[in-house]
Amino acid sequence: MIGGKWKTLIMYYLINKRKRFSELKSLLPGITSKMLTKQLRELERDGLIKREIYHQVPLKVEYSLTAKGMELEEILLQMCEVGTRYLDHEDSCQKAVQLV
């Protein structure tokens, strides 16, 4: 459900605030637009995130955690905490989540 390199990070970044595609892409250096789109679609399909479209000009789309996704919040935060214990620099939960 949240396996792979990117899904846990995407969900981690959605814990406190909904994000637009471009915001997520800038938080995930190295991810391609195609891969981010694929991961977002899979998370949405699994009911962990929702995609909200705002019909305005320009069109606005935001992603956020669903209630099901929020159930994993504590686990994601614990993964970050455990990962940072093993890093030399505690400056990046992104690296920490990737370690776990």
Automatic annotation (TrEMBL):
Q: Which GO terms describe its molecular function?
A: DNA binding
- The superkingdom of the source organism is Bacteria
Q: Which Gene3D superfamilies match?
A: Winged helix-like DNA-binding domain superfamily/Winged helix DNA-binding domain
A Pfam match: HxlR
Give the protein name, as stated in the record.
Winged helix-turn-helix transcriptional regulator
PROSITE patterns for this protein:
HTH_HXLR (PS51118)
InterPro entries for this protein = HTH_HxlR, WH-like_DNA-bd_sf, WH_DNA-bd_sf
Q: Where is the HTH hxlR-type domain?
A: 1-91
Q: Which organism is it from?
A: Bacillus mycoides
Q: Which UniProt keywords apply?
A: DNA-binding, Transcription, Transcription regulation
